[in-house]
Amino acid sequence: MAQYNHAAIEKKWRENWEKNPINVNDGKKEKYYCLDMFPYPSGSGLHVGHWRGYVISDVWSRYQLLKGKYVIHPMGWDAFGLPAENYAIKMGVHPAKSTAANVANIKRQIGEIAAIYDWDMEVNTTDPAFYKWTQWIFVQMFKKGLAYEKEFPINWCPSCKTGLANEEVVNGCCERCGTPVTKKNLRQWMLKITAYADRLLNDLDKLDWPEKVKKMQTEWIGKSYGAEVEFPVEGRDEKITVYTTRPDTLHGATFMVLAPEHKLAKDLATDETREAVEKYIFDASMKSNVDRLQDKEKTGVFTGTYAINPLNGAKVPIWLSDYVLADYGTGAIMCVPAHDDRDFEFAKKFNIPIIQVIAKDGKEIENMTEAYTEASGTMINSGDWNGMESSVLKKEAPVMIEKMGIGRKTVNYKLRDWVFSRQRYWGEPIPIIHCPKCGNVPVPEDQLPLTLPEVDSYQPTGTGESPLAAIDWWVNTTCPCCGGPAKRETNTMPQWAGSSWYFLRYVDSKNDKELVSREKADKYLPVDMYIGGVEHAVLHLLYSRFYTKFLYDIGVVDFDEPFKKLFNQGMITGKNGIKMSKSKGNVVSPDDLVRDYGCDALRMYELFVGPPELDAEWDDRGIEGVSKFLKRFYNLVLDNKDKDVKETKEMLKLRHKLVYDIETRFNQFSLNTVISGFMEYNNKLSELAKKEGGIDKETLKTFVILLAPFAPHLGEELWRELGGTDSVFHATWPECDEEAMKDDEIEIAVQINGKTRGVIMVPAEISKEEAIAAGKEAVKDKLTGTIVKEIYVPRKIVNIVQK
Ligand code: ANZ
Ligand code: ZN
């Protein structure tokens, strides 16, 4: 009998599919858009961890194909940005060259997965024909006032020599290179994502996304309701406005803290405190936001000046501390140590009085050892507010404060506008011209793309300017408005620019008139299923939603959410859960495994290692089991295909159970248990074949169709062996008939006084009376006493109680 020869089979069908594409758009089928997060073409190529995501999305795409859909399943390259540029600098090659080589290599490796990517749709963010539209979007945002310039201290990576968005700072360090991040004052381009904060928050409800990701976005946007309260400064004609979410605690404010960057911070110093205050302000300027929030020990300095609590006239000392951030709320807070952890810690350290204003059970605590932070309990020490319920007051206080004329109710967001410029070479040039007469003028749309000029040195300058600033012929230009001499913007866009909208371009990737034609957008967009790692929960996924909403607002597309459904796959790690990386030397390359076991076996093993949403440790040895299953299944089909046995009731039942089990697990995205299901049913069928002298063809065909999304080559081979003349992927996904699945006979345990004494086989639809009668008959020898009770647990147990 033939041996399962994966190499020959896989080669044969790969070539066949090349000639006869299996995923065709006949214009009639319903579309299904299944998208992968496109990769950075880094120099190290793909490892088995990258494979997993692509296998998941391909299995899902082929499933949709078998359900009769036209599947949009594109692939492209996120090729601008720091990793590509750093790699290029390290290897001494121009980023365009190294990127092209990396793309070619990864494309070859992706080919090994046998995914049904439509390469006609391929995009590359560094292709001028693509980034023309990245720049076009920027120009539209500029025209709508959503792209603007601002000078302020930004996160600065001294090693990458570039500014970083808050999102790119992880534990106070550069996300890319791990160097501690400092601050630098720079002119920046900003995108006003905050204008979309409410829509980005509210529309999360529309999305079929993991709750975890929705929660992360909700927290990132960080909407809170509260009040601004104005505290007069003692002895001056000046007020300090604080932002608080707990105006109910106003009577308990015993001090005030300003961010060191607050505009009054220096002014408030007295002759005695000036030196200490200035030193404190300087030290804080050297720390990143993240560091400041994580600092274990609170630091601070008293300014020497007091403010007046506008509610009760109490005098409160004004301090500076870096636990208050300059760019949140008003950069100043009233401190209520009795009810806020950070304030409590600060008050303890600097010996500031603590006044309790909420009592949990109406009683004041003698010696507070920690803050009571819940907004529930009765107000005490709070003048007119005494006796009120804190949770009620929390909601009412903003309005009361507004009426008293000492503040107003407000909404605050944690979300900040997006720092959109980078001082690097390898990015889209920002299409703006600075004219001394006309100000900032966008590059006219018919002159886009504004291409990146060749430079001699693409190393960052470290002066805060991009290497583009050194190219005089490029920088000096004429103003499109007045024709006078003007200068080009030399900052480039961040890595996220292209990835914020690339998914729209795939379906019309060669259009040179529009970003995407409205006709194609209406027909093929949005994305039905987006598959990628959870590390993009807030950055890429929030930016993409923002871009899509903007493009919706200006009429480019007719939907305002890009990704209907999202699936986050877990990571494949090396031994002991360590992330696979070249530097750790634990990278497993798929190439050898494909050679030794075949693409189908590796595809299945990638899914078999564990639930797809969880991380899984890689162990090469496990692939043996999957490979053995494929061999066994191959033999099962070949052994039985010509036997021409008649379908028995048991075969029919098993077939429908198979369809039911596989489909249910598939729809729950439980891909690992789909594969264990295949193994189980393969065993069941082998046994049945022994018992009945073979297996009917319909059952074999059904199994082959179910398996095909996972092991496409073997599926195709066996389908043809079973007489298929067209591709298995043009077969119809089997349906399960729940009636046919039902067991006709079931096993019931017969118990006496709760102890099992026998087992009977009865018809599945047996009535209670019949079941009890049959049970009594089966154990009649042991029924020696008087029967006092007869119990029937449907389809499971008959229990006779005797005395
Ligand atoms: C008084 C108070 C009493 C506060 C209390 C809390 C508890 P969220 O929910 O995150 O918006 N805060 C305001 N601006 C700040 C800043 N720039 N840097 C650091 N902290 C700031 O939190 C708002 C609360 O965080 C505000 O309410 C303020 O402290 C503090 F029992 O005011 B609260
Ligand atoms: Zn001008």
Automatic annotation (TrEMBL):
Its main location: cytoplasm. A motif ('KMSKS' region) lies at residues 579-583. It is found in: Cytoplasm. InterPro entries: aa-tRNA-synth_Ia (IPR002300), Leu-tRNA-ligase (IPR002302), Leu_tRNA-synth_edit (IPR025709), M/V/L/I-tRNA-synth_anticd-bd (IPR013155), Methionyl/Leucyl_tRNA_Synth (IPR015413), Rossmann-like_a/b/a_fold (IPR014729), tRNAsynth_Ia_anticodon-bd (IPR009080), Val/Leu/Ile-tRNA-synth_edit (IPR009008). The keyword Cytoplasm applies. It holds the Pfam family tRNA-synt_1g. One of its GO terms (molecular function) is leucine-tRNA ligase activity. Its EC number is 6.1.1.4. ATP binds at K582. Residues 38-179 form the Methionyl/Leucyl tRNA synthetase domain. The keyword Plastid does not apply. Keywords: Aminoacyl-tRNA synthetase, ATP-binding, Cytoplasm, Ligase, Nucleotide-binding, Protein biosynthesis. NCBIfam families: leuS_bact (TIGR00396). HAMAP family: Leu_tRNA_synth_B (MF_00049_B). PANTHER family: LEUCINE--TRNA LIGASE, MITOCHONDRIAL, LEUCYL-TRNA SYNTHETASE. Belongs to the class-I aminoacyl-tRNA synthetase family. This is Leucine--tRNA ligase. The lineage of its organism: Bacteria, Bacillati, Bacillota, Clostridia, Lachnospirales. The gene is leuS.
